[in-house]
């Protein structure tokens, strides 16, 4: 693949448009390669719902949210997918074989952006605090861990099948409504898979239905529900979104989202294990050892960044819901008698400020408090920070007060005491936890959405990405004014080498006019460009041009550029 993928440092000299657009996730390819598929039917939808609501670690159903009207996007999701491919941020996984639904590869610039995001999070949450330490636990571990945590039995989403098209839908995302006429009679049912505009779309479908049936007059306001709320009778009458016809949908069944794997040479029950569905359990099972070896005193936190895997029924909305993704999680252990609400609030603010600092538009952020049945039974409180993507407002991260549930479960199952001994006292307790949990890929997508902009130069529209310097894939581009003047080229290459050795990802570019070179850098979000010109040969100064203030070109000593970039790349303090 090396020949196909340019190195980040060489990137930007040629950006050919892709011959085709990347494939968008489609339900038809959703199960081509799923392995470890394990689903079980429950006799009645109602008992299934009750069991999920009371036991699952996973939230039962995604709330329907109001559309954030502040969000005026200049690009839609399809445009973002295409831009990500064209500019080397994200590619469909295994694209030469047609892609693989729910899996993505980060290209040269995407890898830089993602690594910068993770580095900044680690810096802010671990290095800048004296009460949080890091961990890197294994992806596959003894199945006892996920048995004890409840994932093996209960980490499920409700699923419905269309027996006609063989497509599969998440029951809580398959929306339907009965079309009731003014006189109280039914004209039938309409359905669709949830997206940002379900109300409008279902209304349109209802109008079409009564037109098709040649019914005069209007219909009552639609009462929109999801498939988990459908009775057996209603299930038979709701049309499948795949065929548009009723009669082929099944009732909701639980589908366990964990990927199974086999460890060792035999593929039998005894060797079965799982790819972790979250990084958190690795932290809980290491709690005792970490506390002991690092001599930690409560309150303190353990942070981890790593891959997680979920066999999502319908991966969709690009990076937002994929089957392989990364999480940045902290388990912050506290005294059970501490004011957990105040500590949870501090972590919500810590996360909010981090999101702002790396460049998310605050007007697109909001909070959503889980209450009632949306709150998992073991959680004492949970607040999501939601982000308005072009496809709607969705969970970006969650900050949950999880009580002692996980440590208790592991203590019981392993027989190992996970109590904390208060230093100098007789008091012992199983700590409670506050859990900030953020998906790297959802943050990556939110960052692209926030950074995307368009402007016009000499009547020509162009796109640019306004990344903050602390996360920008390329921090600075270095140009010799002319490529056929060896002293300029030598000085420019020297500056690039110096900055690289100081830890910056810089790009050397000598092709085309300076204007074209600036533009290429704006398109991939490079905040600074340095040009070596004839004055440099006289006084060793270079010009610095800022992407976001292109008319203010400054001159700086060549030797001061490193310190300048260092300052600009700091995560802004809130
Ligand atoms: P959702 O309700 O959207 O499925 P969740 O509540 O199940 O999410 P958590 O189990 O709380 O998610 O996981 C913590 C974080 O991990 C989420 O806030 C999100 O940022 C990220 N995440 C979860 N599932 C996925 C996925 N399939 N793809 C990408 N990121 C994910």
Automatic annotation (TrEMBL):
<comment type="similarity">
    <text>Belongs to the class-II aminoacyl-tRNA synthetase family.</text>
</comment>
<protein>
    <recommendedName>
        <fullName>glycine--tRNA ligase</fullName>
        <ecNumber>6.1.1.14</ecNumber>
    </recommendedName>
</protein>
<dbReference type="Pfam" id="PF03129">
    <property type="entry name" value="HGTP_anticodon"/>
</dbReference>
<dbReference type="InterPro" id="IPR036621">
    <property type="entry name" value="Anticodon-bd_dom_sf"/>
</dbReference>
<keyword id="KW-0436">Ligase</keyword>
<dbReference type="InterPro" id="IPR006195">
    <property type="entry name" value="aa-tRNA-synth_II"/>
</dbReference>
<keyword id="KW-0547">Nucleotide-binding</keyword>
<dbReference type="Pfam" id="PF00587">
    <property type="entry name" value="tRNA-synt_2b"/>
</dbReference>
<dbReference type="InterPro" id="IPR002315">
    <property type="entry name" value="tRNA-synt_gly"/>
</dbReference>
<dbReference type="InterPro" id="IPR002314">
    <property type="entry name" value="aa-tRNA-synt_IIb"/>
</dbReference>
<feature type="domain" description="Aminoacyl-transfer RNA synthetases class-II family profile">
    <location>
        <begin position="202"/>
        <end position="469"/>
    </location>
</feature>
<dbReference type="InterPro" id="IPR027031">
    <property type="entry name" value="Gly-tRNA_synthase/POLG2"/>
</dbReference>
<keyword id="KW-0030">Aminoacyl-tRNA synthetase</keyword>
<dbReference type="InterPro" id="IPR045864">
    <property type="entry name" value="aa-tRNA-synth_II/BPL/LPL"/>
</dbReference>
<dbReference type="InterPro" id="IPR004154">
    <property type="entry name" value="Anticodon-bd"/>
</dbReference>
<keyword id="KW-0067">ATP-binding</keyword>
<dbReference type="InterPro" id="IPR033731">
    <property type="entry name" value="GlyRS-like_core"/>
</dbReference>
<keyword id="KW-0648">Protein biosynthesis</keyword>
């Amino acid at each position: 693949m090396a020949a196909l993928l340019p190195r980040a440092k060489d990137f930007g000299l040629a950006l050919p448009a892709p011959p085709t657009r990347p494939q968008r996730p489609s339900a038809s390819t959703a199960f081509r390669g799923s392995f470890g598929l394990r689903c079980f039917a429950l006799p009645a939808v109602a008992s299934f719902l009750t069991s999920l609501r009371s036991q699952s670690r996973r939230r039962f159903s995604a709330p329907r949210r109001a559309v954030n009207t502040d969000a005026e996007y200049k690009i839609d999701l399809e445009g973002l997918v295409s831009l990500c491919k064209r500019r080397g941020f994200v590619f469909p996984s295994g694209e030469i074989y047609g892609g693989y639904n729910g899996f993505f590869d980060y290209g040269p610039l995407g890898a830089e952006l993602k690594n910068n995001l993770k580095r900044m999070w680690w810096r802010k949450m671990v290095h800048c605090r004296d009460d949080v330490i890091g961990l890197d636990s294994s992806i596959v571990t003894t199945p006892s861990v996920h048995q004890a945590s409840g994932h093996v039995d209960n980490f499920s989403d409700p699923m419905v099948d269309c027996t006609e098209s063989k497509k599969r839908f998440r029951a809580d995302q398959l929306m339907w409504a009965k079309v009731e006429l003014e006189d109280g009679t039914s004209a039938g049912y309409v359905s669709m898979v949830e997206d940002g505009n379900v109300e409008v779309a279902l209304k349109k479908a209802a109008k079409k239905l009564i037109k098709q049936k040649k019914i005069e007059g209007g219909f009552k306001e639609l009462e929109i529900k999801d498939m988990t709320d459908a009775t057996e009778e209603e299930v038979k009458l709701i049309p499948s979104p795949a065929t548009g016809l009723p009669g082929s949908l099944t009732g909701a069944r639980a589908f366990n989202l964990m990927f199974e794997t086999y460890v060792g040479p035999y593929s039998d029950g005894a060797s079965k294990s799982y790819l972790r569905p979250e990084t958190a359990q690795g932290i809980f099972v290491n709690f005792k050892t970490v506390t002991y070896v690092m001599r930690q005193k409560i309150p303190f936190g353990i942070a981890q960044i790593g891959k997680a895997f979920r066999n999502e029924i319908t991966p969709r909305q690009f990076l937002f819901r994929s089957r392989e993704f990364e999480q940045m999680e902290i388990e912050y252990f506290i005294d059970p008698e501490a004011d957990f609400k105040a500590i949870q609030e501090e972590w919500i603010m810590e996360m909010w400020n981090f999101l702002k600092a790396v460049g998310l538009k605050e007007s697109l952020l909001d909070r959503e408090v889980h209450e009632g049945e949306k709150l998992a039974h073991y959680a004492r409180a949970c607040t999501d920070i939601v982000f308005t993507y072009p496809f709607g407002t969705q969970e970006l991260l969650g900050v949950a007060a999880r009580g002692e549930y996980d440590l208790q479960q592991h203590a019981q199952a392993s027989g190992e005491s996970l109590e904390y001994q208060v230093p100098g006292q007789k008091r012992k307790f199983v700590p409670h936890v506050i859990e900030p949990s953020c998906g790297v890929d959802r943050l990556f997508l939110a960052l692209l959405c926030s950074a995307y902009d368009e402007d016009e130069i000499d009547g020509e529209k162009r796109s640019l990405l306004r990344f903050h310097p602390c996360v920008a894939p390329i921090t600075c581009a270095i140009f010799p004014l002319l490529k056929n003047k060896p002293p300029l080229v030598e000085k420019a290459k020297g500056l690039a080498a110096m900055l690289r050795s100081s830890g910056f990802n810089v790009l050397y570019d000598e092709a085309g006019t300076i204007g074209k070179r600036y533009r290429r850098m704006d398109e991939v979000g490079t905040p600074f460009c340095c040009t070596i010109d004839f004055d440099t040969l006289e006084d060793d100064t270079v010009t610095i041009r800022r992407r976001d203030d292109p008319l203010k070109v400054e001159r700086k000593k060549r030797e001061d550029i490193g310190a300048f970039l260092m300052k600009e790349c700091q995560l802004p303090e809130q």
